[in-house]
């Protein structure tokens, strides 16, 4: 996989670990002290991952980061002196309910691929870093439409009772929310929250829009259904002034160069997300949606309540699916 695959052969050099020159201070990361918390002036990277695997399913290969590359990314976060936060911890800090670290960085995972538990989670815990995971509930314990194995309910229960991974909502069937009727969008948004809270216990506070797309109506539904925040994509930096219901993220792909991750962590080589989407961007999005997009064709779409597996969803509480998490500390 090009540059990323080559990173598996780490040679111990620090050529990728630039620090200082053109770094955090140059990028405006200097924090302004004052009540009620420290507000960093600079951009806030919210990294978006999907799969971390050296042998990904072909369907997700473009978005699967090699394990060696992922370790590099985490080591870079440490070298930059950044502090990882969950999404809810970040928005709590934005509202003044918690202190915001001087150099925050957020690590998020969409969809809930099974390799998260085997590859990403150990690497995160080894470095005492935290992350936010957004599974789509109809795929939990099954395979994605492309055939990749997904995390099970036992896995999510173990994560939900941990203090280093926040679990958020990502709809039930992963539709493009701004392209379906509002009533169905509300069902997707509300039902995934209810299902996650029924099975995992803790309140589900944050949401991520499938494919990154939303509209004012969709964002309003997310707010009305009781979420505190939601992640978009935008491929831009977030900031203390970002829209908490459309937080900007930076997509990390299989071929994202390590130097680009380094630059993002230094506050460079990406734009700062506008608080509101410019009208010119809306026109571009509208025009682009008239063409079919490869990135959405494999996920279930269409009208009505889709059954992506060709059979009814397994009812809540059926054998093998715990309705509640096991006690804290019990192996999943
Ligand atoms: Zn997704």
Architecture overview:
The chain contains 9 helices and 12 strands. It is an alpha/beta fold and 332 residues long. The two termini are 32 Å apart. The strands form 3 sheets. Strands 3, 6, 7, 8, 9, 10, 11 and 12 form an 8-stranded parallel beta sheet that branches. A two-stranded antiparallel ribbon has the order 1-2. Helix 2 runs parallel beside helix 4 (115-126), helix 2 (67-79) packs parallel to helix 8 (258-265) and helix 6 (182-200) packs parallel to helix 7. The protein has a single domain (2-296), classed as TIM Barrel (Alpha-Beta Barrel). Strand 8 (131-135), helix 5 (153-160) and strand 9 form a beta-alpha-beta unit. The chain is globular. Zinc ion binds next to strand 7.
Number of structural units classed as domains: 1
Mean pLDDT: 77
CATH class: Alpha Beta
Structural class: alpha/beta
Number of strands: 12
CATH topology: TIM Barrel
Q: Given the C-alpha coordinates, what overall shape results?
A: globular
Features:
single chain, 8-stranded parallel sheet, globular, two-stranded antiparallel ribbon, alpha/beta, 332 residues, disordered N terminus, binds zinc ion
List the helices and strands and how they pair.
Elements: H1 2-6, E1 31-32, E2 39-40, E3 46-49, E4 51-52, E5 64-65, H2 67-79, E6 83-85, H3 87-94, E7 104-111, H4 115-126, E8 131-135, H5 153-160, E9 165-167, H6 182-200, E10 206-208, H7 216-224, E11 229-234, E12 247-251, H8 258-265, H9 279-288
Parallel strand pairs: 3-7, 3-12, 4-5, 6-7, 7-8, 8-9, 10-11, 11-12
Antiparallel strand pairs: 1-2
The structure holds zinc ion.
Zinc ion binds at residues 110-111, 170, 174, 210.
């Amino acid at each position: 996989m090009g540059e990323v695959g080559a990173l598996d052969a780490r040679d111990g050099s620090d050529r990728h670990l630039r620090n200082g020159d053109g770094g955090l201070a140059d990028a405006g990361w200097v924090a302004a002290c004052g009540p009620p918390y420290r507000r960093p002036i600079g951009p806030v990277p919210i990294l978006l991952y999907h799969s971390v695997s050296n042998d990904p399913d072909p369907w997700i290969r473009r978005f699967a980061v090699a394990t060696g590359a992922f370790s590099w990314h985490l080591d870079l976060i440490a070298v930059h002196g950044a502090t990882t936060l969950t999404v809810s911890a970040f928005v709590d800090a934005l509202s003044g309910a918690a202190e915001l670290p001087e150099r925050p960085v957020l690590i998020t995972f969409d969809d809930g691929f099974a390799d998260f538990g085997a590859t990403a989670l150990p690497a995160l815990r080894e470095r005492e870093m935290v992350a936010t995971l957004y599974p789509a509930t109809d795929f939990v314990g099954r395979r994605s439409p492309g055939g990749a194995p997904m995390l099970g309910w036992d896995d999510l229960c173990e994560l939900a009772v941990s203090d280093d991974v926040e679990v958020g909502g990502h709809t039930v069937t992963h539709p493009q929310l701004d392209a379906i009727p509002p009533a169905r969008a509300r069902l997707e948004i509300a039902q995934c929250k209810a299902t996650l809270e029924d099975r995992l216990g803790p309140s589900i506070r944050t949401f991520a829009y499938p494919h990154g797309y939303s509209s004012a109506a969709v964002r309003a539904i997310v707010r009305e259904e009781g979420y505190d925040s939601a992640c978009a994509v935008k491929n831009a930096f977030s900031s203390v002034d970002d829209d908490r219901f459309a937080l900007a993220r930076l997509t990390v792909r299989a071929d994202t160069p390590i130097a680009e991750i380094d630059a993002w962590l230094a506050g460079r080589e990406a734009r700062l997300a506008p608080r509101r989407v410019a009208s010119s961007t809306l026109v571009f999005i509208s025009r682009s949606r008239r063409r079919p997009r490869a990135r959405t064709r494999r996920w279930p779409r269409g009208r009505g309540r889709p059954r992506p597996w060709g059979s009814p969803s397994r009812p809540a509480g059926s054998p093998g699916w715990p309705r509640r998490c096991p006690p804290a500390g019990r192996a999943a």
